[in-house]
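Researcher: Let's do a round of design. I'm pasting the structure tokens now; please hold your answer until I've finished.
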């Protein structure tokens, strides 16, 4: 018993921040398994598509306007939506906002973090500023994913109930990606995490008002990550235990933090490959039920007129995030409405960008269906979350039948992932939606992503 108590005490006093920082400092491209590199390239392509899809999508022109007001116009870094050349800070700021607005960017389940939308804007801007190689960009992105995911897992479910993890943990993930391109040592990463963590923010309250804060969260996470990295490189010090310290992030932002998650199998478990692609253009909490409903309707050959009610059996976080959106007033808010998403699935067969644009608010059939949808907390689904996002729906039909369907791995999860062809098709759909690039440019960007390890110096992409 005494030995057990001694082991527990020793574990509690481990400097996990430094352990994480040491791993990040020592990580090299040669250490990253090939399948992780290839998954990183796929996530990078997916992020490019999400970013370009944000062109002219509200509120992205406001972010571009701010950049024109406050940022230089002669830098070496590119805002992808308007192709403006500016500083790393403003390129990361605009690209991070743009890549999160159409709700097609990736998600890591157990951390409930959207890594790409904060990691790649910071990494690409820094790489263009420093003239880094494709291999260096990949290494930086892997470092950002591995750190950000573990920090999200560390902060736990209680954190996500109030805080948007992509805004909070995402700030540190972005900082790590930029810091890796600067080749910081262990002490540098300790300071970097401290300076990034003290800036971390992002609250879910915006959903009640259909506000634009979600894009501000990612824009600030990426640009504040750059601020932390560039200032650390210049000599700024940060808190040594910003994560697990008595007045650190967990103390102020979590009631169930687990310090062990910060160093979980570093170098053995590659959390990046656990990241899911988003198939539907909506909040990820809607996807399991959407897939289950689609499967049920196909199985039973049902139309939306055949269905009297739908009950989505969900985890608590889905209720926390989606519950406040009862009567969506904007397209973006509709993406956080379970009824709107299931209405698009039932009436139009998909929840794509085009379907949201054309039908989410103005289609009376979708509006009518939305009113027939409810969510209930399901113990099985909630117990599996966040490591697994289970889809369970029950319906009653107008002729009195009660039917159900289950989906254990939503489309896009690692066990039900998108193929290379599907990823390229998604990329083309996203760019076509916004008209952000020509067909030739689209082909060049796809080739760029798959050839990224061979790039000797990152330059403007468009």
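Researcher: That's everything. Go ahead.
Model: Designed sequence:
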């Amino acid at each position: 018993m005494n030995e057990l108590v001694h082991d527990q005490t020793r574990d509690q006093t481990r400097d996990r921040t430094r352990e994480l920082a040491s791993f990040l400092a020592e990580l090299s491209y040669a250490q990253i398994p090939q399948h992780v590199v290839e998954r990183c390239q796929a996530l990078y392509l997916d992020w490019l598509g999400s970013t370009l899809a944000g062109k002219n999508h509200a509120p992205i022109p406001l972010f571009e306007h701010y950049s024109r007001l406050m940022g230089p116009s002669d830098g070496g870094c590119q805002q992808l939506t308007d192709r403006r050349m500016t500083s790393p800070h403003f390129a990361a700021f605009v690209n991070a906002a743009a890549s999160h607005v159409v709700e097609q960017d990736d998600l890591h389940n157990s951390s409930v973090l959207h890594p790409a939308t904060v990691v790649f804007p910071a990494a690409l801007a820094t790489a263009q500023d420093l003239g880094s190689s494709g291999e260096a960009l990949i290494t930086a992105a892997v470092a950002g994913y591995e750190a950000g995911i573990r920090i999200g897992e560390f902060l736990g479910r209680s954190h996500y109930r109030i805080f948007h993890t992509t805004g909070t943990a995402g700030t540190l993930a972005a900082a790590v990606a930029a810091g890796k391109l600067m080749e910081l040592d262990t002490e540098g990463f300790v300071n970097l995490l401290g300076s990034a963590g003290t800036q971390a923010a992002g609250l879910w309250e915006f959903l009640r008002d259909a506000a634009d804060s979600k894009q501000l969260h990612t824009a600030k996470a990426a640009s504040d990550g750059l601020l932390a990295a560039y200032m650390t490189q210049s000599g700024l010090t940060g808190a040594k235990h910003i994560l697990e310290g008595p007045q650190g992030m967990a103390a102020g932002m979590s009631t169930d933090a687990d310090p062990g998650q910060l160093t979980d199998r570093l170098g053995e478990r590659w959390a990046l490959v656990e990241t899911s692609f988003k198939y539907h253009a909506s909040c990820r909490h809607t996807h399991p039920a959407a897939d289950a409903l689609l499967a049920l309707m196909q199985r039973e050959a049902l139309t939306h007129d055949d269905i009297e009610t739908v009950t989505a059996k969900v985890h608590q976080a889905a209720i926390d995030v989606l519950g406040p959106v009862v009567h969506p007033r904007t397209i973006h808010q509709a993406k956080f409405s379970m009824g709107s998403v299931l209405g698009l699935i039932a009436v139009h067969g998909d929840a794509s960008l085009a379907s949201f644009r054309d039908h989410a608010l103005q289609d009376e059939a979708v509006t009518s269906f939305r009113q027939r949808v409810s969510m209930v907390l399901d113990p099985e689904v909630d117990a599996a979350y966040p490591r697994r996002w289970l889809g369970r729906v029950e319906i009653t039909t107008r002729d009195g039948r009660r039917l159900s369907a289950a989906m254990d791995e939503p489309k896009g999860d690692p066990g039900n992932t998108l193929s290379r062809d599907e990823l390229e098709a998604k990329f083309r759909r996203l760019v076509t939606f916004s008209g952000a690039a020509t067909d030739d440019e689209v082909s060049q960007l796809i080739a760029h992503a798959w050839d990224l390890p061979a790039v000797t110096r990152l330059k403007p992409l468009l």
